[in-house]
Amino acid sequence: MLKLHQFERTWGIPNLSPFCCKIETYLRMAGIAYEIKPALPLRAPKGKLPYISDNGKTLGDSRFIIEYLKSTYHDLDSGLTPEELAISIALQRLLEEHLFWVALYSRWQFTDENWQVNKQAIFGALPPIVRDVAASHTRKKIQQQIYGHGMGRHQAEEIFALGKQDIDALSAYLGHKPYFLGDRPTTLDASAFGLLINISGCPIESPLKEHALIKENLLAYIERITHSFYPDLQHP
Q: What is the pLDDT of residues 111-144, one digit of tens each?
């Protein structure tokens, strides 16, 4: 059976990593059987989670994992037109190459309160000394990545203004549709759900989360996907 290596579940959401959540959501939407293997990024093939192992292959990076799942198991995008595929790719880039960095900034740099919540979720199971050293090293590394990306060169209010624009664009494009590209889920929905639930559904407070929480259609979208594909995470 295909094995999905990702962070332990926490915060009552599928995964604290938008990309781990993206892959698990794709697997569930596509009806692909899998087994979860809790992991940390240190041993991942590209130094990041998630990664999968299947039929003697090990693959990292959610984009390449999705391509493998499409060609080997089931392609959620098989019925899309070329125009719809173009929109899908463009919106995935907005989510994963721009909005993601605003969310990352919220967790690793914005406030110490957020950092402590994030630190406990990721490193809390480690022995205290190892935890503190690993967490501090990782935080500095990720802050350098945020700066290198360019997002970290802005002031906080500028960063969140950019993120709010992304949220507005996603809300406007979704409108009243069940899914971003119509009546059935596609890869774009796996990507969008993975990030949106990690913005609005986790205990990381920021102006970005506050803005996402006023978008009723995005909240209904998150609830709809959770209800349809994660009944095991539904609270009574």
A: 999 999 999 999 998 898 999 999 999 999 999 9
- Sheet hosting strand 57-60, strand order edge to edge: 34-38, 2-6, 51-54, 57-60
The reply to whether 48 and 129 lie within a common domain is: no
The answer to whether residue 77 sits within a structural domain is no
Give the C-alpha distances (Å, rounded to integers) separating 65 from 28, 32, 95, 104.
14, 13, 17, 22
Residues 98 and 141 reside in one and the same domain:
yes
- Residue 130 one-letter amino acid: V
114: containing domain: 82-233
Same domain, 127 and 53: no
pTM of the model: 0.95
Q: Residue 49 pLDDT > 90, yes or no? A: yes
Q: How far apart are CA 217 and CA 200, in angstroms?
A: 13
Residue 62 identity (one-letter amino acid) = S
**Token pair of 60, please?**
């990292």
| Residue 161: C-alpha distances to residues 33, 155, 172, 221 (Å) | 40, 10, 17, 23
Q: What is the Cα gyration radius of the chain? A: 17
